[in-house]
Amino acid sequence: MTAPHRLRADAARNRANILRAARTLFAARGEVVGIDEIAREAGVAVGTLYRHFPTKADLVNAIVGDLAHRIFTALDEAVARIDAGGSAFAELTVLTERISDAAGVDRTIKAAMHNLGVQADPGLADKGRNGLARIVEAGHAEGSLHPDVTAADLMLMMSTMPGDELPEEARRRWVQLILRGLAADPARVDTGG
Amino acid sequence: MTAPHRLRADAARNRANILRAARTLFAARGEVVGIDEIAREAGVAVGTLYRHFPTKADLVNAIVGDLAHRIFTALDEAVARIDAGGSAFAELTVLTERISDAAGVDRTIKAAMHNLGVQADPGLADKGRNGLARIVEAGHAEGSLHPDVTAADLMLMMSTMPGDELPEEARRRWVQLILRGLAADPARVDTGG
DNA sequence: TTCTATAGTGAACCACCACTCAGGTTGAGT
DNA sequence: ACTCAACCTGAGTGGTGGTTCACTATAGAA
Fold first, then answer.
1. Which residues of B touch A146 (CB under 8 A)?
2. What is the block-wise mean pLDDT of chain A (193 residues), using blocks of 10 residues?
3. Which residue would you say has higher pLDDT here, B3 or B111?
């Protein structure tokens, strides 16, 4: 659409600072942080911020979209390891724990997870669904996942994942119970940490 | 503390209207609805609303507290039926489904559930924990609940319950998977509805 | 060095919302 | 009927937070 047109040096620097500030503040306190505070933290005037992101929603989307991308990368890696002979259930466990840990430290993770299931650009959503479908398929093949579990089920559990409102211990326990619900045999989940 | 002093007839009527309006609007759109809109819906001026509830938080607490009370009532009834020889797991299932259905229609349910675990007056919280403990105890006795499941686990799952952001089908499925995670044997959960 | 498109600045704007108060109204006791 | 404490009214206040824009500064090409 728009011509590429390289960004001016100062503009690129400011853009990076804005993104870094927004990432930090959103992670710590959620999307309620004001534009003014983000601009101040980035060492920039509000007008500059609005030049790069015409709307607060645009800024949020940039942050959340990046997080979603990282999650998909982790998903892809898990699928690759499964294809290389890894255990589907072990990969699902690690993936869930990692995302849960991240959600405990970063408030935007929940928003990212939710957006994956609901909106996001269709390409990404499909890609996510495909990855989960691969895991489910492998899980059924190895007999570790309950036969009626689907990719939509994984999506469902991911999207209801608790965030930093719960202490770490509770989040860990949540993951354990969820995995039991997805497993063919609850005993399989009990790998003491 | 304060003398009882019966409310004047019009005041009582207005109070009831305010509570009804707040209940409806909060249920439909959450706590973001403005005081002005609630007052309008109640057929009352804002000043009147503030006479009855000096703060928006007070109004919210009134609604949420009432909901919490209803949930505890349902919990008590479940415990009573278990004491009368009912199945602990069946009661847990019905209770979870009922609350989940309610959460799908009323946005304040999630707030109520969360408040139960976090704040609320200690008396109520203890009462809730006791009820859940009774169910867990009975569930262990009948062998339906996984041995390591505790009352805190039930609280945990309740507090992460999805609301009206998910369609009914997804909420039902969520309950089923959660119950599998709590059950001693996943096959026990499969009672097609 | 000169020039200008690109970028930055921050005070002001505006819509929203919880909350207040000076003045008018009325239920209910006598 | 009379009285007044309790009650109601709704325009206004103060604060917040996203967004704009007239003006200034500068990166980078010529």
1. 180, 186
2. 74 98 98 98 98 98 94 96 98 98 97 72 77 97 98 94 95 98 91 47
3. B111
Give the residues across from A183 on adjacent strands.
Answer: A145
Average pLDDT over residues B65-89: 96
* Protein-strand D interface by C-beta, 7 A: A 8-10, 32-36, 46-47, 50, 54-57; B 7-8, 10-11, 14, 44-48, 50-52
Q: What tokens were used for A4?
A: 């590429």
Tokens of A56: 């607060």
Q: What is the pTM of this model?
A: 0.92
**Residue B75, CB half-sphere, CA atoms under 13 Å: how many?**
26
Enumerate domains of chain A plus CATH numbers.
1-54 (1.10.10.60), 60-193 (1.10.357.10)
For A45-56, b/e burial (b = at least 16 CB within 10 A) is eeebbeebbeeb
Instruction: State the best of B136, B173, B180 to mutate against chain A, taking most chain A CBs within 10 Å.
Output: B180
